[in-house]
Design a protein that fits this description.
203 residues; 7 helices; mainly alpha
């Protein structure tokens, strides 16, 4: 979003500013696991992403949210993630009973989607790292691939949808709280996921 005027996207600017600290924490936690040093580490990274996407899967099937974000269902990357597991001969991770189901209101859910959709921008850098392991958008790193319309255009469409929806002040605050909650969950999930899957065999 840095290349776009904040004045054109005031709501997105609030989301970014209010979550910058917890966002930085998450980036550091993930990279501290050296996810692209070798395929075993990458496999653990995929497991983490699987548990995260599993937690938010219901959002992408939500008909009410789809009235705000028309292509919502098509934005779900779960199928690509499962294909990556198959490519690498990895079993689908077992469910973690310690994780509660996502409990977010309609407007909090918009904040959660901001976090998940925003991660696709950073995935461009991660995809280049994955290439060093012999992975690509056709094999093992499908989950990190960009949209057919391009990452920037895809993100811009999402931002415009968020900006267009009518929200009261309380509803906007709920959205901001949802984004905070999403980043906090993603941070906590790093420890939980890596403890749950301490070692991963990757073909």
């Amino acid at each position: 979003m840095s290349s776009l005027k904040s004045s054109n996207y005031p709501r997105m600017s609030k989301l970014r500013t209010s979550t910058s600290s917890v966002h930085d924490q998450l980036d550091k936690k993930i990279m501290a696991q050296s996810p692209f040093d070798n395929k075993a580490n990458y496999g653990q990274f995929l497991c983490y992403q699987y548990h995260l996407m599993k937690h938010v899967a219901a959002l992408y099937q939500d008909a009410q949210l789809a009235t705000i974000i028309p292509d919502l269902q098509a934005r779900d990357r779960s199928a690509q993630l499962l294909a990556d597991f198959q490519d690498l001969n990895m079993p689908q991770p077992a469910a973690m009973p310690t994780l509660n189901e996502l409990n977010a209101s309609h407007y909090e859910s918009l904040g959660w989607l901001y976090v998940i959709e925003g991660s696709k921008l950073g995935a461009a850098i991660l995809a280049k790292e994955a290439e060093k392991l012999g992975l690509s958008d056709k094999y093992g790193a499908r989950f990190l691939a960009g949209s057919e319309v391009g990452r920037g255009a895809h993100w811009r469409q999402f931002m415009q949808s968020i900006e267009k929806v009518e929200l009261s002040e309380d509803q906007e605050q709920a959205m901001l709280a949802g984004a905070q909650a999403a980043f906090k969950f993603a941070n906590a999930l790093v420890e939980i996921s890596y403890t749950h899957s301490p070692s991963t065999h990757v073909a």
